[in-house]
Specification:
Blueprint: H1 7-17, H2 33-47, H3 57-70, H4 96-108, E1 117-120, E2 124-127, H5 128-145
Antiparallel strand pairs: 1-2
Helix pairs in contact: 1-5, 2-4, 2-5
Length: about 150
């Protein structure tokens, strides 16, 4: 399975991120391109342990089952997969270039990832290996959403 801990995979994702522009339109979902890039930047901050989030009750109940299902194979995330409220971006306009640069920098940070686990608000404790898979799948999902 693809993982962000592999340099060639990170390079592929970064190339695709750089294809995004102000006029990029979603093929599904409600976010515009700026909201999606900011959403992904926040997700990577969480995955790298820079911003902690509180566990959700439903995640405590179903999180481990969902994590196991997501990390069992290379299947991409389904369209319109729900997200935690903390990752819903309400501002419609911002500096896309700045957010993209921050997102790319965070993805590059996976080259030096040293945590054995982080606490995801839905999935709970996630191993380093699972983090690599989830980060790839999350990024790929949103890039496919915008045709990149």
């Amino acid at each position: 399975m693809k993982t962000v801990f592999d340099k060639s995979t990170r390079d592929e994702l970064i190339y695709r991120i750089n294809l995004l522009h102000e006029d990029s339109k979603p093929q599904w979902g409600k976010m515009n391109v700026y909201q999606m890039v900011k959403h992904c930047r926040l997700w990577e901050e969480m995955a790298l342990g820079r911003v902690p989030f509180k566990r959700s009750l439903i995640g405590r109940i179903f999180g481990k089952i969902a994590l196991k299902d997501l990390t069992k194979d290379d299947n991409p995330l389904r369209r319109n997969t729900p997200t935690s409220p903390e990752f819903k971006i309400t501002d419609n306009n911002g500096d896309l270039a700045s957010e993209r640069k921050k997102w790319i920098s965070l993805l590059e940070g996976h080259a030096h990832y040293s945590s054995d686990d982080f606490l995801h608000p839905f999935f709970g404790k996630v191993t380093k290996e699972q983090t690599g898979y989830l980060s790839y799948k999350h990024t790929d999902h949103h890039l496919r959403q915008f045709g990149a």
